Amino acid sequence: MKKTNLPILLGIMLMVVSCSQEADVVEESNLLKEADNISNSKKVTEVADFYNIYLVNRSPSEQNFWCFLQDPEINTSGEVYANSSTHLIIAPNYPGVNYFTIPLQYVIGAGAGNQAVGLDTRIVSSDSRDTEIGDHWGIEYLLHQGPNIVNINKLPEAAIMLTSNPFDKIGFENQGWYSNMSFGIQSSSGYIGMTWSPDPNQTTIIVPKFTFYIATGDFQSNQLADFTTISSSAAEITQNDFGQGFDVTVTLTETGEWVVETGAPNEVIDIPVKP
């Protein structure tokens, strides 16, 4: 049993580095080496198509459990915000089963509109694509139009790249048109990811790492949130916490603490859970 006072954000922890095409070559090379190391380690690690996160509320009151990605390491000129629509409201000591089923399926997205990317802004990508490790995507931002997404090529490294076109960001924004870029996971429970404002002619390198969190609070679906605020009351779920059955149970205790245990709750051990 692992006990932590951090609130539990659910997600795939990402290491993300954004760099312009003139960015430091050494930094980019180091990130791609890290991607290579992750790729080699995964060759000996069994993975599943779906991972189940069971939620138990032992607190005195009803709680809204939210799923977020852990804040990434990122080298970009702007802020990166948490973006999630995945949540469940659970009554105290509810006798049934509550869980998130998270697919091992990444999604990239892009959008544009009259809302600037910022705290408490509601952002939903106008176009998205399922993606996998090794994909390199090109995103074309246009004035008063939705962006175009095209697959450029396949990468040898265990990374995902997003490259924006050389659009006139300042000119667009002066006319009330704001671009956004996102990365995350789309599950049956909703979206879990992150959103930022892209710079022109920039390549963002994303190296996913498998780490989840869960939190409770008054968040709103697809309303951008601050990673620091979320993580101040969150608990971490790593890939090792799932064990061989690809299940983990997260309990909010009577005293407001979080307990993370490998496997499903005892009452559902013998019940197969289908995604």
UniProtKB/TrEMBL annotation:
Which N-terminal stretch is annotated as signal sequence?
Answer: 1-23
Q: What is this protein called?
A: Uncharacterized protein
Q: Is the Signal keyword given for this protein?
A: yes
Is Signal among this UniProt entry's keywords?
yes
Kindly state which keywords UniProt assigns to this record, in alphabetical order: Signal
